[in-house]
Amino acid sequence: MGRKVVVPVVILLFGDKLNIGGTETHIFTVAQELRRRGHRVIIGTSGGPLEPAFVKAGLEVVRLPFKSDDPVLTELSDLIRMVKDLVNGEQVDILHANFLGGMKVASQVSQELGIPLIVTVHGLYYPFKLMRRAVELSTRVIAVSIPARNYVVNTIKYEARKVTVIPNGIDCHVYQPGPKMNRFRKELGLGLDEKAKVVLTCGRIAWGKTRVIASLIEAARLFTQDDFGNNIYYVIAGSGPDTSLIRLRVELTNQALGRRVITMVGERTNLVEAYQAADLVVGTARVALEAMSCARPVIAAGNAGYIGAVHKDRFGMAWENYFGDHKAPQLINTRQLISDMAFFLNNPNKAESIGRECRLWVEEQFAIEKVVSKIEKVYQEARSEQLWL
User: Do 348 and 374 reside in the same domain of the chain?
Assistant: First the structure.
């Protein structure tokens, strides 16, 4: 049975700043799939490191001068005027906001012009008052996880029937299994050494994720002292306000071990080859999903705490906690991390089998095609409701 025909619409998709991060990558992937389905997608943004990727993909980018998460005075009035002109000039049907600044501007424009507003809640880290106002004025809310949905319904007190849980969508054609002996391994100086094992962690170096990275560094120090751990290399991809702290820990650890065991590679706009080169990925949220789509075994740990090894017996628990990013049964524990790392690294055949299971799960539950079908349904509901207001 084919996909239900959906009338093409014009969507103004707010990506206030196109920095390198999970939310921005989600916007990019969703916009591409919406465009492929015949919708017109306009990206409203102040720009950023990912903007060239949007342009290269053929996406329509319009500059909006976002300077803060809470625009006020002249900044707010200028943004509202520009967005109203854009909505009227391009006959926009849907406003879809992902960050607080865009939510604030879009909610005002939605009220004034009667255009439905969709707000996507990507986490639990928003200032309460700003988030409550944005959500209260929206037509529909999308939550990327069950904990995010519960936050919107139970804490913000938004009407439950108007909240839909739709996860981050993964382009499984991009994030797919590939050769381990690739350019990323050569960049690390490992060449074609098939015995060398790579443990990769990716994400913003901030908040609870800093604790995860610090725990991984300590695990690397302890693990390397074991004979088995001598041929394991650790890679940290990402940046953030705690980068200098983590860099110091990495330098001290490498000095104590007498060689470079841990490497920091900074921000990357494309992590596919890094995932493919890894024997194990430690991450949360979208990183966990991307890695699993590449058939890599994953240890889930994030802002909220520690989930551990992800496999089919724990898929439900991992998803319900959003891989430790929004909720977790425990805080990060270095001893438990070492135990889970040893499980995967000591059992490469089992690790490969679990990686394949993870790939199938992502294809079934998180593929961008299925995610965007759900988003289209939310758009339809919002437009239908707006017509009756």
Answer: no
- Alpha-carbon distance 210 to 239, whole Å? 10
Q: Is 256 exposed, middle or buried (0-12, 13-18, 19+ CB in 10 A)?
A: exposed
DSSP-assigned beta bridge partners for residue 245: none
**In whole angstroms, what is the distance from residue 247 CA to residue 385 CA?**
51
**Helix or strand run (H / E) with residue 42:** strand 40-45
The tens digit of pLDDT for each residue in 357-373 reads 999 999 999 999 999 99
Which of 75-89, 137-151, 196-210, 224-238 is the least confident region?
Answer: 224-238
One-letter identity of residue 303: N
State the pLDDT at residue 4: 63
Higher pLDDT, 389 or 48: 48
Report how far Cα 226 is from the mean position of its chain's Cα atoms.
Answer: 34
| 3, part of any domain | no
> What proportions of the chain, in percent to the nearest 5, are helix, strand and coil?
50, 15, 35
Tokens 């001068």 belong to which residue? 65
Query: Residue 317 in contact with residue 272, Cβ under 8 Å?
Result: no
**pLDDT computed for residue 275 by the predictor:** 99
> What pLDDT sits at residue 342?
96
Q: Is the pTM higher than 0.90?
A: yes
The 8-class DSSP code of residue 266 comes to E
Q: Where are the alpha helices (DSSP H) in the chain?
A: 22-36, 51-56, 73-90, 100-113, 128-136, 146-150, 183-187, 207-224, 243-257, 272-277, 285-293, 315-320, 334-345, 348-365, 368-388
CB under 8 Å to 72, separation ≥6 — which residues? Answer: none
Mark whether 136 and 211 lie in a shared domain.
no
Judged by DSSP in three states, 388 sits in helix
Structure tokens at 153: 């319904």
128 and 158 inside one domain: yes
Are 279 and 136 members of one domain?
Answer: no
Is position 125 within any domain? yes
What are the residues whose beta carbons fall under 8 Å from the beta carbon of 158, sequence distance 6 or more? 135, 136, 141, 152
Residue 186 CB: number of other CB atoms within 10 A? 12
Kindly tell me if the per-residue pLDDT of 386 is higher than 90. no
